[in-house]
From TrEMBL, chain A:
Keyword terms of this UniProt record: ATP-binding, Nucleotide-binding, Transport
GO-annotated molecular function: ATP binding
Coiled coil segments of this chain: none
Protein name (record): ABC transporter ATP-binding protein
PROSITE patterns: ABC_TRANSPORTER_1, ABC_TRANSPORTER_2
Domain ABC transporter stretches: 15-269, 292-536
SUPFAM superfamilies according to UniProt: P-loop containing nucleoside triphosphate hydrolases
Domain of life of the source: Bacteria
Automatic annotation (TrEMBL), chain B:
PROSITE patterns found in the cross-reference section: ABC_TM1 (PS50928)
Family according to the record: Belongs to the binding-protein-dependent transport system permease family.
Highest taxon, organism lineage: Bacteria
Lineage: Bacteria, Bacillati, Actinomycetota, Actinomycetes, Kitasatosporales
Localisation: Cell membrane
PANTHER family reported in the protein's UniProt record: DIPEPTIDE TRANSPORT SYSTEM PERMEASE PROTEIN DPPB-RELATED
Coiled-coil features, chain-numbered ranges: none
Protein's UniProt name: ABC transporter permease
Pfam families: BPD_transp_1, BPD_transp_1_N
Domain ABC transmembrane type-1: 124-325
Transmembrane segment boundaries: 32-53, 128-148, 160-182, 202-222, 256-282, 302-325
Organism of origin: Streptomyces albipurpureus
Keywords, sorted A to Z: Cell membrane, Membrane, Transmembrane, Transmembrane helix, Transport
Topology of this chain in the membrane: Multi-pass membrane protein
Amino acid sequence: MTAAIDPATDRGALLRLEGLKVAYPGQRGRDATVAVDGLSVTVPAGRAVAIVGESGSGKSTTLHALLGLTPRTADVSFERLEFQDGTTGGLRRIDDPRALRGRSVGLVPQDPVRSLDPLMRIGAQFAELHRHFLGLTGREESRARTVAALESVGVDRPGLRLGQYPHELSGGQRQRILIALALVGEPRLLLADEPTSNLDTTVQRRVLDLFDEVRAARGLSVLLVTHDIAVAGERADHLVVMRAGRVVESGPTRDILDAPKDPYTRQLLTSLPSRLPARPVFRAASPPRVVLASHGLTKSFGGGKGQERIDAVRDVSLTLHRGQTVAVVGESGAGKSTLLRLLTGLDRPDAGTVLLDGEETRPGRRARTAFARRVQLVYQNPARSLNPSFPVGRAIAEPLEAHRVGGAKSRAERVRDLLEQVELPAELAARRPSQLSGGQLQRVAIARALALDPDVIVLDEPVSALDQAVQFALLKLLGDLQERLQVAYLLVSHDLGVVRAVADEVIVMHRGRVEEQAATRSVFEAPTSPHTRALLDAVPALQLPTPLVHLAPLAPFSTSDGKKQP
Amino acid sequence: MTRTPHPVRDRVVPTKRPAASRSTAVYALRRCGYFAAVVFSVYTLSFFLLYALPSDPVALMLERRSAGAGGGTAAQVEALRAQYGLDQPLLVRYVETLLQLLGGNPGTSFQSGRPVPEILAAVAPNTLALAGGALAIAIPLSVALALVTSWRRDSVLHRVLVNVPALIAAVPAFWLGLLLLQLFSFTLGWVPSAGGTGLSGLVLPAVALALPVSASLTAVLVRSLDDVQQAAFVGLLRARGLPWSRVYLAHVARNALLPFVTLAGLTVGGVLVGTVITETVFARAGLGRLLASSVETQDAPVILAIAVLAAVLFAAVNLAVDLLYPVLDPRTRHRGRGARA
């Protein structure tokens, strides 16, 4: 099961790992769980290898085991671990993977926001590593090196950054700094643990480009761990597809994308959101009635005394027709979330109006309640938007109780009916959120939003926290529900594949303003604004042979969120 | 693969230096306002609890002074009432007492007839030494114990030591005091059992007072250390090959101390309360015992003065913690509301 390497391009292996096993011993009578079972991977010098898999597939555990970072309770063993010797170029046997930390292998983490010590200035974070790796104690020398390092990873105004704290920087800047920090020990291999999954698409592209640049400039190898086969396919020379702790397929990227052998790989490729059929064209000729509209919405926030007010949303008008979907896209900071809060009445606009069924929304508690009945929200992270102590049946019934709809019996009936609508078994009503998988929880959140028969459901990044196959199933469900119930969706998403599949109309926002507003197809095929083009360019593109799309072997694999991942 | 050369650089977050210094001043002023509000509320609450109670301090006064030889005449009672201002309406007395306190004059004791400052000055140093000594033991002890406990989060040592704070907290302070007395004073004879002056007399009561306090401090710090160890940046620092001792002391401990500082400030209140029991058990003269005896005799001016003094101490320590916090945690420095993304 070794990742096959094309011998022609083989410049010698940098890292060879064979037969990695990671198990967590069972506690209180439960069986031991095997997180990784017999994984082998070889990273050739100067190449990028990607490990692809969904959450729970063992891909992150593999990465942690490679650096000896697994918890002490974990049972880690491997048959062979070898790393290229710096002087002879031959492979050297490594007994303790901790020896690789820093100097041989650099780690770039998943979450740039939480990966820097919040109490330390950027300069101090570098100085610490300079002391450790280079024995450098001089302040000026460390400073000069840090500025050079920041410059080389494309951080602007590096001199200023030295005195800043992590919270004063954007996610993209932090990820660049983390890459620079990983390079301080001059490692030969960079491990990248979902390095971009918490970043905007445009920032994601720039960070991935940076990886390629660094790799080329320094002759490094990269081992990329990701759930996104599109990113992996675009950036890696070799793919290792993992599922439930085992490698199901590995080989050169091109071979796997062109002719996936394992049904699971095929499923990953066919369930890409961008593979969903595009929406039928918006029927502009006889549009259904307008349910929600806004005119000239504006909201600004004060940046403290003596500072300019920042326009979070400026002069945004939109109309949402019954049974249709409008998508709002843009980078973070573009004002998407503020717009959403204005449209749902959670914030009051400074100027402009929100119209529901052609009537202006009024302030006051009663009007607010009536509005909430018609417009419901589904948040990004279902695990955090559901009360963990309520059984999900009660969570679904809560809007009914709040609006005093029906009695106990009719509510229970309605909960059963709603669970059926979102294709969940009725017995789930008694379970608590912690017992459900992410996909199931998001279905519960949708059922709760549907409880009051709303006209509009606002979907704030509804699938971005979920695995790809689960995303696909959930988007299909949303489409079916819309067709059946004629509910209108207002979708906020940074995933343009999702947008293309579900939206009739797209609004592209940039710095609070509407950059482009048009039917989905024309936005994707003939974008007029440079910002739209930048967003579209940033989507990882996979060139796949078209017949693959029609295979769609979804059924035998329970794409829907069968059981909870360990 | 086409590569676009950074069309738009990553967003630059504007730095807010000039506004920050002003918002820091506003923050400090607001905290000082809270300080004044706390002290004022304590005075108001204590005053009405003491003077609105349905009992006659003058009658008690006469009864005590004449040691059971019967009350005074009606004229004597009236004279005493007038002397202490007790014939005035409650609200007038409230304002007058407040003004007196602000002027630094907490009045005279009902019982002894001596000025309250004199009474307090006689015993306050004892209590402050006791409370200070207890904190000086409790804080280093809890920090050390927590650091040792949390060193390896999944070790046997952690599993054992993590239960120690709960065990200590479960021990009643007076019982612990008696136990310490039995062992060190009566059996070993190392330190005097009662009264005692100087350091040798202070050690035992300070330890007895410090132990229960350090239990809660340790528990919070262990929890906080364990949480910080879970943070992504800690794993990353280990992955970079930094030695654990460096990661633990320079990063984990520093981050974990933030909630500890807040709790340590609040603990001052617990220590002041604890002096009441400790001073009784060890028969030390002090504010705690004075308070207990004054409550028995309803010596309102003394009780009021002690309550206000304790409030000032407690609020001052917490004011210091609040003002210290932005220095320790850069994230709390800029208080301007940013735009939501």
